[in-house]
Amino acid sequence: MSNIHDQAMHYIYQQVLERLLGHMSQPQRASLQLLIQRLLLVAGGPEYIGTFKLLVVQGADHRSARLLAILRAAQLSIALRAPVTFQLQVRVVGLPAASSALLEHHERSFDALFLHDDPRVHLQMVKAGVVETFNRQHSAAEPWALARDALLLFGHLVDARPEALLGSRMHLELAAAAGLACEGQPCADVLVTAMPVRQRRRYLAWARRGLRLAGDTGLITAQPCLAALAERLGQLHGLSGLPVGEPEMPSHEQPAQAPMRLLAIDDLLPQLLSEGELDRMMGQHLEPAQDTTPLAAYLDPLALAQLHDLHSRCLAQPPRREALRLVGQRAPGNQQVPQQARFTQAYGVDQSQLICMLYVPFAERGRGLERFLRCRHPDMLVALPYLHRALQGKPCPDAVKHWLVNTSGLALGHLRAIYGGRLQHATRSLLAGLARRDVRLRLLAREAAV
Q1: What is the pLDDT of residue 341?
Q2: Among 104, 120, 131, residue whose Cα is nearest residue 71
Protein backbone atom coordinates (compact mmCIF):
# COMPACT_ATOMS: atom_id res chain seq x y z
CA MET A 1 0.00 0.00 0.00
CA SER A 2 2.85 2.35 0.84
CA ASN A 3 4.46 1.77 -2.56
CA ILE A 4 1.18 2.46 -4.35
CA HIS A 5 0.72 5.63 -2.32
CA ASP A 6 4.22 6.83 -3.15
CA GLN A 7 3.65 6.21 -6.85
CA ALA A 8 0.37 8.12 -6.75
CA MET A 9 1.95 11.08 -4.98
CA HIS A 10 4.87 11.06 -7.42
CA TYR A 11 2.39 11.28 -10.27
CA ILE A 12 0.57 14.16 -8.60
CA TYR A 13 3.80 16.08 -8.00
CA GLN A 14 4.77 15.56 -11.63
CA GLN A 15 1.44 17.01 -12.72
CA VAL A 16 1.95 20.03 -10.43
CA LEU A 17 5.39 20.64 -11.96
CA GLU A 18 3.99 20.36 -15.50
CA ARG A 19 1.30 22.90 -14.64
CA LEU A 20 3.89 25.27 -13.18
CA LEU A 21 6.17 25.01 -16.20
CA GLY A 22 3.20 25.43 -18.53
CA HIS A 23 2.23 28.72 -16.86
CA MET A 24 5.78 30.12 -16.86
CA SER A 25 7.17 32.40 -19.50
CA GLN A 26 10.40 31.51 -21.29
CA PRO A 27 12.46 33.94 -19.12
CA GLN A 28 10.96 32.38 -16.00
CA ARG A 29 11.88 28.87 -17.09
CA ALA A 30 15.43 30.03 -17.86
CA SER A 31 15.67 31.68 -14.43
CA LEU A 32 14.37 28.47 -12.86
CA GLN A 33 17.34 26.50 -14.23
CA LEU A 34 19.75 29.12 -12.90
CA LEU A 35 18.03 28.99 -9.52
CA ILE A 36 18.37 25.21 -9.36
CA GLN A 37 22.09 25.50 -10.07
CA ARG A 38 22.49 28.15 -7.38
CA LEU A 39 20.60 26.05 -4.82
CA LEU A 40 22.80 23.01 -5.50
CA LEU A 41 25.91 25.18 -5.16
CA VAL A 42 24.79 26.81 -1.89
CA ALA A 43 23.83 23.41 -0.44
CA GLY A 44 27.38 22.18 -1.05
CA GLY A 45 26.57 19.86 -3.93
CA PRO A 46 23.84 17.41 -5.01
CA GLU A 47 24.80 14.97 -2.25
CA TYR A 48 23.76 17.51 0.42
CA ILE A 49 20.55 18.79 -1.15
CA GLY A 50 18.39 16.29 0.80
CA THR A 51 19.26 17.94 4.14
CA PHE A 52 19.22 21.50 2.82
CA LYS A 53 16.47 23.67 4.39
CA LEU A 54 15.04 26.78 2.77
CA LEU A 55 12.92 29.27 4.69
CA VAL A 56 10.50 31.64 3.00
CA VAL A 57 8.42 34.21 4.90
CA GLN A 58 5.19 34.26 2.96
CA GLY A 59 3.24 37.40 2.26
CA ALA A 60 -0.11 37.69 0.48
CA ASP A 61 1.05 39.84 -2.42
CA HIS A 62 1.75 38.79 -5.99
CA ARG A 63 5.54 38.88 -5.52
CA SER A 64 5.39 36.40 -2.63
CA ALA A 65 3.06 34.04 -4.51
CA ARG A 66 5.31 34.02 -7.58
CA LEU A 67 8.40 33.44 -5.47
CA LEU A 68 6.76 30.48 -3.75
CA ALA A 69 5.73 29.04 -7.12
CA ILE A 70 9.28 29.30 -8.46
CA LEU A 71 10.70 27.63 -5.34
CA ARG A 72 8.14 24.84 -5.59
CA ALA A 73 9.05 24.31 -9.24
CA ALA A 74 12.72 24.09 -8.27
CA GLN A 75 11.97 21.61 -5.49
CA LEU A 76 9.94 19.32 -7.76
CA SER A 77 12.43 19.61 -10.66
CA ILE A 78 15.30 18.44 -8.45
CA ALA A 79 13.12 15.59 -7.13
CA LEU A 80 12.62 14.28 -10.68
CA ARG A 81 16.36 14.21 -11.34
CA ALA A 82 17.65 13.01 -7.96
CA PRO A 83 16.40 10.68 -5.22
CA VAL A 84 16.00 13.60 -2.77
CA THR A 85 15.36 17.34 -2.86
CA PHE A 86 15.57 20.27 -0.46
CA GLN A 87 13.09 20.93 2.35
CA LEU A 88 10.91 24.02 2.11
CA GLN A 89 9.74 25.80 5.27
CA VAL A 90 6.94 28.25 4.56
CA ARG A 91 6.03 30.54 7.45
CA VAL A 92 3.10 32.91 7.34
CA VAL A 93 3.73 35.83 9.67
CA GLY A 94 0.58 37.61 10.81
CA LEU A 95 0.55 41.17 12.13
CA PRO A 96 -2.23 42.64 14.27
CA ALA A 97 -3.66 44.82 11.52
CA ALA A 98 -3.65 42.05 8.92
CA SER A 99 -6.80 41.51 6.92
CA SER A 100 -8.73 38.31 7.54
CA ALA A 101 -8.71 37.76 3.77
CA LEU A 102 -4.92 37.29 3.70
CA LEU A 103 -5.09 33.71 4.99
CA GLU A 104 -7.50 32.86 2.18
CA HIS A 105 -4.90 34.06 -0.34
CA HIS A 106 -2.31 31.83 1.32
CA GLU A 107 -4.67 28.86 1.26
CA ARG A 108 -5.31 29.27 -2.49
CA SER A 109 -1.58 29.40 -3.17
CA PHE A 110 -0.83 26.35 -1.03
CA ASP A 111 -3.63 24.35 -2.65
CA ALA A 112 -2.49 25.26 -6.16
CA LEU A 113 1.04 24.06 -5.37
CA PHE A 114 -0.15 20.95 -3.47
CA LEU A 115 1.90 21.81 -0.38
CA HIS A 116 -0.30 20.49 2.43
CA ASP A 117 0.41 16.76 2.01
CA ASP A 118 4.07 16.93 0.97
CA PRO A 119 6.39 15.82 3.83
CA ARG A 120 9.17 17.93 2.30
CA VAL A 121 7.16 21.09 2.95
CA HIS A 122 6.41 22.53 6.40
CA LEU A 123 3.62 25.12 6.62
CA GLN A 124 3.47 27.22 9.76
CA MET A 125 2.06 30.52 10.91
CA VAL A 126 3.19 32.94 13.60
CA LYS A 127 0.37 34.83 15.25
CA ALA A 128 0.07 36.69 18.56
CA GLY A 129 3.36 35.28 19.84
CA VAL A 130 2.52 31.64 19.05
CA VAL A 131 3.97 29.35 16.38
CA GLU A 132 1.41 26.87 15.07
CA THR A 133 0.58 24.79 12.05
CA PHE A 134 -0.96 26.83 9.27
CA ASN A 135 -4.74 26.82 9.40
CA ARG A 136 -6.88 29.32 7.54
CA GLN A 137 -9.69 28.75 10.07
CA HIS A 138 -7.66 30.90 12.50
CA SER A 139 -8.54 34.02 10.54
CA ALA A 140 -10.79 35.57 13.16
CA ALA A 141 -9.36 38.83 14.52
CA GLU A 142 -8.06 38.49 18.05
CA PRO A 143 -6.85 41.31 20.28
CA TRP A 144 -3.08 41.45 20.55
CA ALA A 145 -2.51 42.91 24.00
CA LEU A 146 1.19 43.74 23.65
CA ALA A 147 0.84 45.19 20.17
CA ARG A 148 -2.24 47.14 21.25
CA ASP A 149 -0.45 48.76 24.20
CA ALA A 150 2.63 49.44 22.08
CA LEU A 151 0.51 51.17 19.43
CA LEU A 152 -1.33 53.39 21.93
CA LEU A 153 1.80 54.20 23.91
CA PHE A 154 3.71 55.11 20.79
CA GLY A 155 0.94 57.44 19.63
CA HIS A 156 0.64 59.18 22.99
CA LEU A 157 4.37 59.34 23.76
CA VAL A 158 6.04 60.01 20.44
CA ASP A 159 4.02 60.52 17.28
CA ALA A 160 0.36 59.99 16.37
CA ARG A 161 0.80 60.44 12.63
CA PRO A 162 -0.43 57.38 10.71
CA GLU A 163 2.88 57.10 8.85
CA ALA A 164 4.72 56.86 12.17
CA LEU A 165 2.19 54.57 13.85
CA LEU A 166 2.28 52.08 10.98
CA GLY A 167 5.83 52.89 9.94
CA SER A 168 9.05 51.24 11.05
CA ARG A 169 7.28 49.87 14.15
CA MET A 170 5.57 47.37 11.85
CA HIS A 171 8.98 46.10 10.73
CA LEU A 172 9.87 45.46 14.38
CA GLU A 173 6.64 43.49 14.84
CA LEU A 174 7.45 41.51 11.72
CA ALA A 175 11.01 40.84 12.89
CA ALA A 176 9.77 39.77 16.33
CA ALA A 177 7.35 37.30 14.76
CA ALA A 178 9.98 35.96 12.33
CA GLY A 179 12.46 35.56 15.17
CA LEU A 180 9.89 33.63 17.17
CA ALA A 181 9.50 31.18 14.31
CA CYS A 182 13.19 30.24 14.63
CA GLU A 183 13.06 29.51 18.36
CA GLY A 184 13.03 25.98 19.75
CA GLN A 185 13.85 24.27 16.49
CA PRO A 186 16.83 23.93 14.14
CA CYS A 187 17.13 27.01 11.99
CA ALA A 188 16.88 26.77 8.24
CA ASP A 189 20.10 27.00 6.26
CA VAL A 190 19.04 30.01 4.21
CA LEU A 191 16.25 32.54 4.01
CA VAL A 192 15.16 33.09 0.42
CA THR A 193 14.17 36.59 -0.64
CA ALA A 194 13.48 38.43 -3.88
CA MET A 195 13.83 41.84 -2.22
CA PRO A 196 15.93 44.18 -4.40
CA VAL A 197 19.44 44.87 -3.14
CA ARG A 198 18.72 48.57 -2.58
CA GLN A 199 15.87 47.76 -0.22
CA ARG A 200 18.00 45.18 1.61
CA ARG A 201 20.71 47.76 2.20
CA ARG A 202 18.18 50.30 3.45
CA TYR A 203 16.70 47.75 5.85
CA LEU A 204 20.13 46.76 7.16
CA ALA A 205 21.11 50.42 7.70
CA TRP A 206 17.84 51.03 9.57
CA ALA A 207 18.47 47.94 11.73
CA ARG A 208 22.00 49.08 12.56
CA ARG A 209 20.81 52.51 13.64
CA GLY A 210 17.95 51.14 15.74
CA LEU A 211 20.22 48.72 17.57
CA ARG A 212 22.79 51.44 18.24
CA LEU A 213 20.10 53.74 19.64
CA ALA A 214 19.09 50.95 22.03
CA GLY A 215 22.68 50.45 23.19
CA ASP A 216 23.35 47.20 21.34
CA THR A 217 27.05 47.06 20.52
CA GLY A 218 26.86 43.76 18.67
CA LEU A 219 28.40 43.82 15.23
CA ILE A 220 26.05 43.66 12.25
CA THR A 221 27.97 42.58 9.18
CA ALA A 222 26.86 42.77 5.59
CA GLN A 223 25.86 39.08 5.83
CA PRO A 224 24.63 38.61 9.43
CA CYS A 225 23.00 35.58 10.94
CA LEU A 226 19.42 36.39 10.06
CA ALA A 227 17.96 34.46 13.00
CA ALA A 228 20.13 36.47 15.41
CA LEU A 229 19.26 39.74 13.67
CA ALA A 230 15.55 38.97 13.85
CA GLU A 231 15.92 38.14 17.55
CA ARG A 232 17.68 41.43 18.27
CA LEU A 233 15.10 43.44 16.33
CA GLY A 234 12.41 41.55 18.25
CA GLN A 235 14.05 42.78 21.45
CA LEU A 236 13.79 46.33 20.10
CA HIS A 237 10.08 45.73 19.65
CA GLY A 238 9.84 44.85 23.33
CA LEU A 239 11.74 47.98 24.36
CA SER A 240 9.57 50.21 22.19
CA GLY A 241 6.49 49.19 24.18
CA LEU A 242 7.86 50.04 27.64
CA PRO A 243 7.03 53.54 28.89
CA VAL A 244 8.60 53.28 32.35
CA GLY A 245 11.66 51.77 33.96
CA GLU A 246 15.13 51.47 32.51
CA PRO A 247 15.17 48.63 29.98
CA GLU A 248 18.53 47.51 28.66
CA MET A 249 19.32 45.81 25.41
CA PRO A 250 20.42 42.25 26.26
CA SER A 251 23.97 41.40 25.27
CA HIS A 252 24.20 39.66 21.93
CA GLU A 253 25.62 36.16 21.92
CA GLN A 254 26.70 34.36 18.80
CA PRO A 255 24.44 31.40 17.96
CA ALA A 256 25.83 27.98 18.80
CA GLN A 257 24.68 26.51 15.52
CA ALA A 258 25.58 27.55 12.00
CA PRO A 259 24.18 30.98 11.10
CA MET A 260 21.17 31.33 8.88
CA ARG A 261 22.24 32.92 5.61
CA LEU A 262 20.43 35.05 3.08
CA LEU A 263 19.85 33.76 -0.44
CA ALA A 264 18.87 36.71 -2.61
CA ILE A 265 17.49 35.79 -6.03
CA ASP A 266 16.16 39.14 -7.19
CA ASP A 267 18.79 39.13 -9.96
CA LEU A 268 17.42 35.83 -11.30
CA LEU A 269 13.73 36.67 -11.09
CA PRO A 270 13.09 40.24 -12.29
CA GLN A 271 9.82 39.02 -13.78
CA LEU A 272 8.37 38.73 -10.27
CA LEU A 273 7.42 42.39 -10.66
CA SER A 274 5.30 41.80 -13.75
CA GLU A 275 2.00 40.03 -14.33
CA GLY A 276 1.86 36.59 -15.88
CA GLU A 277 0.10 33.27 -16.14
CA LEU A 278 1.37 32.22 -12.71
CA ASP A 279 -1.01 34.69 -11.06
CA ARG A 280 -4.02 32.95 -12.55
CA MET A 281 -2.72 29.51 -11.66
CA MET A 282 -2.11 30.60 -8.05
CA GLY A 283 -5.62 32.02 -7.74
CA GLN A 284 -4.45 35.52 -6.82
CA HIS A 285 -7.18 38.16 -7.05
CA LEU A 286 -5.56 41.16 -5.35
CA GLU A 287 -6.30 44.61 -6.68
CA PRO A 288 -3.25 46.29 -8.29
CA ALA A 289 -3.38 49.19 -5.80
CA GLN A 290 -3.41 46.75 -2.89
CA ASP A 291 -0.48 44.80 -4.25
CA THR A 292 1.70 47.93 -4.43
CA THR A 293 0.77 49.23 -0.98
CA PRO A 294 3.72 49.16 1.46
CA LEU A 295 3.53 46.07 3.64
CA ALA A 296 0.43 44.96 1.73
CA ALA A 297 1.65 41.40 2.24
CA TYR A 298 1.22 41.65 6.01
CA LEU A 299 -0.99 44.67 6.70
CA ASP A 300 -4.56 45.47 5.77
CA PRO A 301 -4.08 48.13 3.04
CA LEU A 302 -7.16 50.02 4.27
CA ALA A 303 -5.69 50.70 7.72
CA LEU A 304 -3.39 53.53 6.70
CA ALA A 305 -6.12 55.28 4.70
CA GLN A 306 -8.53 54.98 7.62
CA LEU A 307 -6.08 56.48 10.08
CA HIS A 308 -5.22 59.30 7.68
CA ASP A 309 -8.87 60.31 7.39
CA LEU A 310 -9.51 60.04 11.13
CA HIS A 311 -6.31 61.93 11.97
CA SER A 312 -7.11 64.80 9.62
CA ARG A 313 -10.59 65.18 11.12
CA CYS A 314 -9.14 65.18 14.64
CA LEU A 315 -6.80 68.02 13.68
CA ALA A 316 -9.56 70.01 12.02
CA GLN A 317 -10.98 71.23 15.37
CA PRO A 318 -14.69 70.89 14.47
CA PRO A 319 -16.89 73.66 15.91
CA ARG A 320 -19.25 71.11 17.42
CA ARG A 321 -18.98 67.53 18.59
CA GLU A 322 -19.64 65.13 15.74
CA ALA A 323 -19.30 61.39 15.39
CA LEU A 324 -15.94 60.36 13.93
CA ARG A 325 -15.98 57.04 12.13
CA LEU A 326 -13.45 55.18 10.05
CA VAL A 327 -13.77 55.56 6.30
CA GLY A 328 -16.67 53.51 5.04
CA GLN A 329 -18.04 52.69 8.48
CA ARG A 330 -21.83 52.64 8.63
CA ALA A 331 -24.03 54.41 11.11
CA PRO A 332 -24.45 52.84 14.59
CA GLY A 333 -27.99 51.77 13.74
CA ASN A 334 -26.67 49.13 11.36
CA GLN A 335 -25.38 46.18 13.36
CA GLN A 336 -23.26 44.85 10.52
CA VAL A 337 -19.57 45.58 11.12
CA PRO A 338 -17.93 46.60 7.82
CA GLN A 339 -14.59 45.20 6.74
CA GLN A 340 -13.13 48.70 6.92
CA ALA A 341 -13.30 48.52 10.74
CA ARG A 342 -11.01 45.47 10.96
CA PHE A 343 -8.11 47.61 12.17
CA THR A 344 -9.73 48.56 15.49
CA GLN A 345 -11.00 45.01 16.01
CA ALA A 346 -7.63 43.37 15.36
CA TYR A 347 -5.83 45.53 17.89
CA GLY A 348 -8.62 45.21 20.45
CA VAL A 349 -8.95 48.99 20.68
CA ASP A 350 -12.27 50.75 20.18
CA GLN A 351 -12.59 53.84 18.04
CA SER A 352 -12.98 56.26 20.95
CA GLN A 353 -9.59 55.10 22.28
CA LEU A 354 -8.07 55.52 18.84
CA ILE A 355 -9.46 59.06 18.61
CA CYS A 356 -8.08 59.81 22.08
CA MET A 357 -4.63 58.72 20.94
CA LEU A 358 -4.80 60.88 17.80
CA TYR A 359 -5.55 63.97 19.92
CA VAL A 360 -2.50 63.24 22.14
CA PRO A 361 -4.15 64.85 25.21
CA PHE A 362 -1.92 63.58 28.02
CA ALA A 363 1.65 64.28 26.86
CA GLU A 364 3.65 67.23 28.21
CA ARG A 365 1.66 67.30 31.45
CA GLY A 366 -1.68 67.33 29.68
CA ARG A 367 -1.05 70.22 27.32
CA GLY A 368 -3.77 69.08 24.88
CA LEU A 369 -6.21 67.74 27.47
CA GLU A 370 -8.54 70.76 27.53
CA ARG A 371 -8.75 70.89 23.73
CA PHE A 372 -9.53 67.17 23.63
CA LEU A 373 -12.35 67.59 26.15
CA ARG A 374 -13.84 70.59 24.31
CA CYS A 375 -13.85 68.75 20.98
CA ARG A 376 -14.85 65.25 22.09
CA HIS A 377 -16.04 65.25 25.73
CA PRO A 378 -17.41 68.68 26.68
CA ASP A 379 -19.33 67.19 29.60
CA MET A 380 -15.99 66.33 31.26
CA LEU A 381 -14.66 69.90 31.26
CA VAL A 382 -15.95 70.40 34.77
CA ALA A 383 -13.72 67.52 35.89
CA LEU A 384 -10.54 68.90 34.27
CA PRO A 385 -8.79 69.67 37.61
CA TYR A 386 -9.51 66.14 38.86
CA LEU A 387 -8.16 64.65 35.64
CA HIS A 388 -4.88 66.47 36.18
CA ARG A 389 -4.77 65.26 39.78
CA ALA A 390 -5.33 61.67 38.69
CA LEU A 391 -2.55 61.93 36.11
CA GLN A 392 -0.23 63.43 38.73
CA GLY A 393 -0.89 60.55 41.13
CA LYS A 394 -2.81 62.66 43.60
CA PRO A 395 -6.08 61.60 45.32
CA CYS A 396 -9.17 61.97 43.15
CA PRO A 397 -12.57 60.27 42.67
CA ASP A 398 -12.45 56.71 41.34
CA ALA A 399 -14.92 57.65 38.60
CA VAL A 400 -12.31 60.01 37.14
CA LYS A 401 -9.69 57.25 37.10
CA HIS A 402 -12.10 54.83 35.41
CA TRP A 403 -12.94 57.44 32.77
CA LEU A 404 -9.26 57.94 31.94
CA VAL A 405 -8.62 54.20 31.61
CA ASN A 406 -11.74 53.53 29.53
CA THR A 407 -11.24 56.53 27.24
CA SER A 408 -7.55 55.92 26.57
CA GLY A 409 -7.40 52.12 26.69
CA LEU A 410 -4.24 52.31 28.84
CA ALA A 411 -3.55 51.56 32.47
CA LEU A 412 -3.33 54.50 34.86
CA GLY A 413 0.37 53.85 35.42
CA HIS A 414 1.02 54.20 31.71
CA LEU A 415 -1.02 57.40 31.55
CA ARG A 416 0.97 58.92 34.41
CA ALA A 417 4.22 58.00 32.66
CA ILE A 418 2.95 59.71 29.50
CA TYR A 419 1.82 62.75 31.48
CA GLY A 420 5.19 63.15 33.23
CA GLY A 421 7.30 62.19 30.22
CA ARG A 422 9.20 59.57 32.23
CA LEU A 423 11.31 57.74 29.67
CA GLN A 424 14.74 56.24 29.95
CA HIS A 425 17.13 57.98 27.53
CA ALA A 426 17.83 54.91 25.37
CA THR A 427 14.10 54.18 25.05
CA ARG A 428 13.33 57.80 24.14
CA SER A 429 16.04 57.76 21.46
CA LEU A 430 14.75 54.47 20.05
CA LEU A 431 11.14 55.67 19.88
CA ALA A 432 12.18 58.95 18.26
CA GLY A 433 14.17 57.02 15.68
CA LEU A 434 11.23 54.75 14.91
CA ALA A 435 8.99 57.77 14.39
CA ARG A 436 11.30 59.10 11.70
CA ARG A 437 10.55 56.34 9.16
CA ASP A 438 7.42 55.30 7.29
CA VAL A 439 6.57 51.77 6.20
CA ARG A 440 9.05 52.08 3.31
CA LEU A 441 11.69 53.21 5.84
CA ARG A 442 11.83 56.64 4.21
CA LEU A 443 12.42 59.74 6.33
CA LEU A 444 9.36 61.65 7.52
CA ALA A 445 9.39 65.43 7.77
CA ARG A 446 10.16 66.63 11.29
CA GLU A 447 7.97 69.70 11.01
CA ALA A 448 4.91 67.45 10.61
CA ALA A 449 5.49 65.76 13.95
CA VAL A 450 2.85 66.15 16.64
Answers
A1: 59
A2: 120
